[in-house]
Amino acid sequence: MKITHVEQFAPKNRTRLIRIGTDAGIDGWAESTLEGKPKSVPAVIDEYAQYLIGKDPLRIEHHWQQIYRSAFFRGGAHNMSALAAVDAALWDIAGKHYGVPSYKLMGGAVRDRIRVYAHWGIRDLSDEGLEASRKRLDMLQKKGYTAYKAGPAGPWRAHEPPSRIDQFVEAAYKMREWVGPDVELCFDFHAKMTPALAIEVCNEIKGMRPMFVEEPVPQENTDALKLVSDHVPFPIATGERLLTRWEFREVIEKQCVALLQPDVAHCGGPSELKKIANYAEVYYQHIMPHCAIGPLALGACMLVDAVVPNFLIQEQVDAGLGNGLLKKDWEVIDGHIPLWETPGLGVEVDEAEATKEFTGESYGYHAELGGETYHENDGSVADW
Ligand SMILES: [Mg+2]
């Protein structure tokens, strides 16, 4: 079997997909979306396609090594997202070629279903805000979720007055009151805080027993992350912006966090996600893969979630369950997604929808992520 073509599609405003075709008539699909950067990853994939055409698609690790190592410049979000999509599509082809779910080729499943959390929280404490939050919670509770994630909205300065912190803390305690002690609650700080502010806020919410706080500070300085972890009495998580084992190395070895969130679509694909998980297992850290894009990326995450012992919970967003791209959406039952039995990555792509070209207005500079971000009081740049 040989790779004959690599096609790319842009069916939604930000969604980018690839289809790797073979002379055996087997196609592998994957998502190549990089949030906020819709144009650059397809250009990288075009370059990789020149290498891939004519090659045996079943030599997945060999191709990963070739693409990562032999092109001189390594890593970076664009290269790694492109490589991640190629890797996931090859795992899809391998599963279809051998007629088994791809997780059976990665050591076999160590669990029967994948626990997922949903995004829900209270941000607005007004009557209307609370009513909207209650409505969404009622809807999600019908699917049996046992964990929810929220985040403090808007930019945060190096320090904030008590009223700003108190509003977030009050909402956090109200969330606990609403869901009770059997449900887990987590908060994504989106790396917007300084270590000092993050520690202060975390200590204010420790009484409502969070499952974790995610990205309390940016990812570049592992010592700053460890400072937060060392001063907070519950798990800290990070990893959606870290790529490859080499970027995770210090976070794992210094034990800067308890929980790792590699994104399968950016960290280098399912092959690399599994290696990061195996590395973390040595330090009793668990993975909770980041997934804020679509249903093909979710399938690639669950390929690894199925086969590693140190998996805790999977992220997904509403659009990630189908987004009009699948013949049958992923289904959350009792807070879990059951493992699939079909060959490949568990998704049957609706090719008519997936190959449509998006014709609406394209996103401008960072528009997908809300555009330029500034502090209101002085116009200085704020972290997203
Ligand atoms: Mg996050």
From TrEMBL:
Class of this enzyme: lyase
Keywords, comma-separated and alphabetical: Lyase
Record EC number:
4.2.1.6
Q: Name one GO biological process term.
A: amino acid catabolic process
Q: Which SMART domains match?
A: MR_MLE
One matching Pfam family is: MR_MLE_N
Magnesium as UniProt keyword? no
Instruction: Give GO MF terms, alphabetically.
Output: galactonate dehydratase activity
Q: Where is the Mandelate racemase/muconate lactonizing enzyme C-terminal domain?
A: 130-235
Q: Which domain of life is it from?
A: Bacteria
Q: What is this protein called?
A: Galactonate dehydratase
Source species of the chain: Actinopolymorpha pittospori
Lineage, broadest ranks: Bacteria, Bacillati, Actinomycetota, Actinomycetes, Propionibacteriales
